[in-house]
Amino acid sequence: MSVVSFLAIDPLLEGDLLWTPLLIVLVKVLVVFVVGLVATMLMVWFERKAIAGMQNRIGPNKAGPFGLLQTLADGIKLFFKEDLLPERADKFVYRLAPYLSFVPAFLAFAIIPLGGDFRDGNGGFVTWFGETTRVQLADPPVGVLFALAISSIAVYGIMLAGWSSGSKYPLLGSVRASAQMVSYEASLGLSLAAVILVCGTLSTSGIVDAQSSLGSWNLVATGVVPFLIFLVSATAELNRPPFDLVEAEQELVGGFNTEYSSIRFALFFLAEFMNTITMSAFIVTLFFGGPQPITIGGTTLDIPLIPNGLEGTVWLLLKVLVFLYIYVWFRGTLPRFRYDQLMDLGWKFLIPSSLGWFMLLAAQRLADDRGWDQWIVVPMSLAVIVVAFVMMQLAFRASDRNREAEGVQF
Amino acid sequence: MELFVFVCAAIMVLVGALGVVLRSNPVHAALSMILTLFGVAVLFVAREANFLAAVQVIVYAGAIVVLFLFVIMLLGVDRAEDLRTEPLGNVQRPLALVLGIGMFALLTTAVVRSRDSLRFKGDGVKTATLEDADGNIRQIARSIFGDYVVAFELTSVLLIVAVVGTVVLARRRKSERTAS
Predict the structure, then answer these.
(1) By 3-state DSSP, what share of chain B in percent is helix, strand and coil, each rounded to 5?
(2) Which tens digits make up the pLDDT trace of A107-138?
(3) I need a labelling partner for A403 at 20 to 30 A (CA). Which of A122, A354, B17, B31 fits?
(4) Which of B58, B67, B174 comes nearest A145 by C-beta?
(5) Contact at 8 Å (CB) between A144 and A192?
(6) Is the residue at B94 inside a domain?
(7) Residues of A in contact with B54 (CB under 8 A)
């Protein structure tokens, strides 16, 4: 076994080393990493500026033009701060936790189609230096599941950070975080299943490819409800307001990251904003056609002067910006949920309704396959769902009453 | 290349497994378990079973071990135990040793003896290819929701019964609480 094959430089083991694909992969990795970091920096600035606008303040305006370099200045400041290690901390886990939260944030970015030409059945392929490739770091056949797996790993960063600090409030924050993130992952996955059902594939580029016009965007094709559930669950999964119980300053001093300082704190901070960007891009990929241009009927909105391969990136950027603004807007508008309200919303409303909607879509597709009459199948399924919902509400009410009567407290 | 991946994953699995048994802090033991689960996921990916790998990470690493950690933290048993003073008795240790060795021997013989019969049984498992990326997933779906749908539904009923039973058992009524 030669050194080259042992180090996995030539993954297909074809014998002769092809430098162009290798270089393309390396460039992609580098670009995705750098774009991720710069985008995070800009996102922090954008959030501060937008929220300042909403609160009639000016926001950062000293460092650089429009205060653009404020994040960089903050980052440098954090680098030079003292790195504290609490005496009662579990040293190894305490040091590991920031990376467990930072690395998944970047990994999830790898499967998002960042551009490319999806028009006229091109399937998102572009040609660079004679190599046909996707504008996407990786396109695993289980793309969407990979994103779910990554988001379930992200729990560990927050959970272990709180536990290893060896202090009470961070522990409370991390126990809340783990319960919240595990609960909302269920509704996240179930609303995702609707998208998978409609597109018939798990790969992210396949999902984008299936959304070639405004009518076939999954937002419309799945009937809006899965998108709304996904948006709410994603916000909870990101621990962003109004679901930021993990770092509720008023109750928990600071939350899971109370004991962290310096570069480790910066890593958590970075991961949080990176996750916001990744999740916005993921929402756009799943429901809004990703890098697809807006096509209504037969006409495509074409941005002049930009080649089609690049135009995808511009469209993606525009769509992602909308969602980033929505997230900032949430933060500026909505007050924080109470913990029991959060759990009620997740378990009693979002999970059942995403499951119900998924069943409706499945019934509709089955009717389509078998040639049954849609006008009978869809109202029938709707009626079943409504009856189930009413029965569930009755069950909740009965259990509440029983609890009151018995004085059970949990 | 395949050997390299296998060796790395195997080291991950073994180190993790040893960690689960040998670490005295329950949280460290749970973390070692995650390492093992990841090693197994890597092995799945190396065998082109991408779906299994993803599900392995989502279900085991993402939900079950999180639940373990949650319980450990909530109950406050997250301190290192001194295993020498643990009242394990003089019976449990030798018994565990015997059972462990017996289990290992059984599994090894099972793997070695069934090697040939596994290889030549059935029409094999489809792996994901460039032309048909979803082939593997489609095959799993066909067998779970087609051939074995009754077993699948029965399993889900079993799980529901288990959940309901747990809730009923864990619930303490007011009268019982005042009595105890």
Answers:
(1) 75, 0, 25
(2) 888 888 887 777 766 666 776 666 677 777 77
(3) A354
(4) B58
(5) yes
(6) no
(7) 142, 145-146, 148-149
- Give chain A's radius of gyration (CA, Å): 24
**B25, B27, B137 ranked by CB distance to A202: nearest:** B137
| Candidates A8, A146, A160; nearest CB to B4 | A8
Residue A154 near residue A104 (C-beta atoms within 8 A): yes
Note down the domain range covering B145.
135-172+176-180
Which stretches within A346-373 are classed as H helix?
A: 351-370
Q: Is B48 a member of any domain? A: yes
Query: Measuring CA to CA, how many Å separate A395 from each of A271, A385, A399, A403?
Result: 41, 15, 6, 12
The residue to which tokens 């032309």 are assigned:
B131
CB of B170 closer than 8 Å to CB of A409: no
- Name the pTM for this structure: 0.85
CATH of the domain at B73: 1.20.120.1200
**Model confidence band, residue A5 (pLDDT cutoffs 50, 70, 90):** very low
Q: Does A54 lie at the interface with B, CB-CB under 8 angstroms?
A: no
Residues A57, A50: Cα–Cα separation, whole Å = 10
> What's the per-residue H, E or C state across A190-219?
HHHHHHHHHHCCCCHHHHHHCCCCHHHCHH
User: To 5 degrees, how large is the angle CA A311–CA A284–CA B131?
Assistant: 75
B151 lies in some domain: yes
The token duo for B19 is 């960690």
pLDDT: which is higher, A173 or A352 = A352
Question: Is A133 in a helix, a strand, or coil?
Answer: strand
Sign of CA pseudo-dihedral B16, A260, B69, B65: negative
Residue-wise pLDDT for A144-168, tens only, equals 888 888 888 888 888 888 888 878 8
| Alpha carbons A171 and B69: distance in angstroms, whole number | 12
Q: Which of B79, B101, B117 is the last residue of a domain?
A: B79
CB A112 within 8 A of CB A278: yes
Element (H, E) at A126: strand A125-128
Distance from CA of B98 to the nearest CA of A (A): 34
Is residue B70 within 8 angstroms of chain A, CB to CB? yes
3-state SS assignment for residue A22: helix
A129: Cβ–Cβ under 8 A, 6 or more apart, which residues? Answer: A20, A24
Whether A185 contacts chain B with CB within 8 A: yes
CA pair distance A8, A21, nearest whole angstrom: 14
Beta carbons of B37 and B126 less than 8 angstroms apart: no
- Residue ranges of the alpha helices (H) in A113-261? 143-164, 168-199, 204-209, 218-221, 225-237, 249-252
Concatenated DSSP letters for B48-82? Answer: T-HHHHHHIIIIIIIIIHHHHHHHHHHHT--SPP-
Q: How far apart are CA B88 and CA B72, in angstroms?
A: 21
Q: The tokens of A355 are what?
A: 């499951």
* Type of residue at A257: N
The closest alpha carbon to A219, from A115, A290, A114, belongs to A290
d(CA A272, CA A268): 6
